[in-house]
Amino acid sequence: MCLQFIHLGKYLNFLLFEARLCTTSLPSDVVVEVGRMSFHLHKFPLLSRSGMIERLISEASSSEGEEEKCAISLSDFPGGPRTFELIAKFCYEVKLELTASNVVPLRCASEILIMSEEYGEGNLIAKTEAFLNHAVLKSWRDSLRALQSCGDEDIYCHADELNIIERCIMSLAAKATTDPNMFGWPLVEIGGPPQSPGGGVLWNGISTGGRSRNSISGWWYEDVSGLSLPIYVRLITAMEAHGIGSELIAGSLISYARKYLPGLNRHQDFVDLKTDLHSGLSPPLSGDAQKALLEDIHRLLPVQKGLVPSKFLSGLLKTAIILRASPPCISNIEKRIGSQLDMATLEDLLITTFSHSKETLYDVDSLQRILGHFLASNQTTDGPRTSACYEDEDHLIGSPAALAPVAKVAKLIDGYLAEVASDVNLKLPKFWALAGAIPEYARPHDDGLYRAIDIYLKSHPWLSDSEREQLCRLMDCEKLSVEARIHAARNERLPLRIIVQVLFFEQLQLRISIAGCLLVSDNVETGAPEGGWATAVRENQVLRVGMDSMKVRVSEIEKECESMKQEIEKLGKVKSDNDESNAGIGNAASTGSGRTRGKMKRRFGINVKSQMCSAEEEWVYDERQSKGFSGKVEKKVNHKREGGRLPRLSPER
């Protein structure tokens, strides 16, 4: 029998209907409607293979009469008209070519049509089942194509009931743990260039000898990214059960998310972007589909620290905010970022605000929650330990492994504060809360914090004096570097009290340094062995040059302090004049001046004596070095002055 299908199309009520006619010597006596397509066929070939069609034809014939053409309808048919056309050819004994792409729809359709061995030997159920077991499940590529054919919802449900999806997933999970070179699998993504079994790319049938990217441990990332989300989630779960490492699982999830979530590719590297363009762009998903995918991906990500890059987690958080993911999803991503905040960069923390209710450019509240999660997970230091965690104001001591992450985060937060400080809509309480959340022991230096405060004061000139002082209390003037102190001493935006404290600590540090240089110089001169006087003299000259430069700096700071003292005395004089005019007492000027100086001392918070800024004072005691060191230094300095090199000074107690 010669079988040929003629494709006809016609419009009815503005809807497109299609028909397929079987051209034989006999007129068709049954019409099968599958979706919007009608098949004009014969009863006998169908009845001899399908129990379902036999029942439907019997029911239709009894209701319509034997003389009329029988019409049956197959709704929600797996694979649609294309699959039924293949089944019709099989019923007419036309050779059917089974492939990995059509075997699953044919297996599901044959199960619905009851095409078992009762209705003919070698029926379609047996043929498709044998092809699945002996061909598809033994091949990585065919198993992938079989799962890709299950993307439609009607096929997915039937294939899941027949356990086809589970069998294909188990086959892929087992093969993913095996070295692909042992079996010579092609292992290329569908549509990719042909390769030799050893991995060399084929060009004109000749192996180039080049190794494919599939030889690495994550060779299957790109292959499985072509699966639909429900099947992919089940595959990843099965791979975890088969013992595949968390690092590989995380890599596959990242690859899958970057393929279907466009928001993750906005800040990726140029090399990664070039790779994505080469592999082809996937069709864009709807907003709801992207949100569902993001929530599933974040749920499957391994929880181990460092397995998922902070850059990817940051992009996932930004995309979740844009897609308006559920609050638990956003909160869990923030916790993941907080658990490894010491591995993040400044760019990862700059989360743009997408809510109309927030006025700031960046989402400071989100970062504050992230920082809170980090501090909660790194509570390794307590009160007594924080009192001695610096050495020479430069290095953390105690437990470096525990303090290093906190120090990195402190530096990162200072950089973030400097970035957002220029936002005029950033309120002082938010800035103060974020800067004050960092423990004091986490900052060896306060230069980064000072820079952020200076930018904030410059961008918010309307702050009151009390607000400026409140903001400047965040930093410790003693922990500023020399360069930062020089800048702060001439910074007009800082409160007067902070400038005085900066000058005080700068002068204190310089005098201690000069005393140390004198002590070292004396030890070099008295302890040099015979024959080494030339070396000692050269070292002594170097020390004297350093001392001279320090003296110049001391002189400059003393001038600044002297001018500051004059301004304070002018303020006291104005206050005393006002008191004299109000009280009318002749001797109230001196009393008012003393009272004013007392108030200024209490306001500045430090007991600054008038002779502290004098050029004649050459010594300041440091209470921290008074045990043993101060007395020795004093004797050495006085000894040198008695020798005629320096004038003898009496120290302030």
TrEMBL record:
<keyword id="KW-0175">Coiled coil</keyword>
<feature type="compositionally biased region" description="Basic and acidic residues">
    <location>
        <begin position="621"/>
        <end position="653"/>
    </location>
</feature>
<dbReference type="InterPro" id="IPR000210">
    <property type="entry name" value="BTB/POZ_dom"/>
</dbReference>
<dbReference type="Pfam" id="PF00651">
    <property type="entry name" value="BTB"/>
</dbReference>
<dbReference type="InterPro" id="IPR027356">
    <property type="entry name" value="NPH3_dom"/>
</dbReference>
<dbReference type="InterPro" id="IPR043454">
    <property type="entry name" value="NPH3/RPT2-like"/>
</dbReference>
<feature type="coiled-coil region">
    <location>
        <begin position="547"/>
        <end position="574"/>
    </location>
</feature>
<feature type="domain" description="BTB">
    <location>
        <begin position="28"/>
        <end position="100"/>
    </location>
</feature>
<dbReference type="InterPro" id="IPR011333">
    <property type="entry name" value="SKP1/BTB/POZ_sf"/>
</dbReference>
<keyword id="KW-0833">Ubl conjugation pathway</keyword>
<feature type="region of interest" description="Disordered">
    <location>
        <begin position="617"/>
        <end position="653"/>
    </location>
</feature>
<protein>
    <submittedName>
        <fullName>Uncharacterized protein</fullName>
    </submittedName>
</protein>
<feature type="domain" description="NPH3">
    <location>
        <begin position="218"/>
        <end position="509"/>
    </location>
</feature>
<feature type="region of interest" description="Disordered">
    <location>
        <begin position="575"/>
        <end position="603"/>
    </location>
</feature>
<comment type="similarity">
    <text>Belongs to the NPH3 family.</text>
</comment>
<comment type="pathway">
    <text>Protein modification; protein ubiquitination.</text>
</comment>
<dbReference type="Pfam" id="PF03000">
    <property type="entry name" value="NPH3"/>
</dbReference>
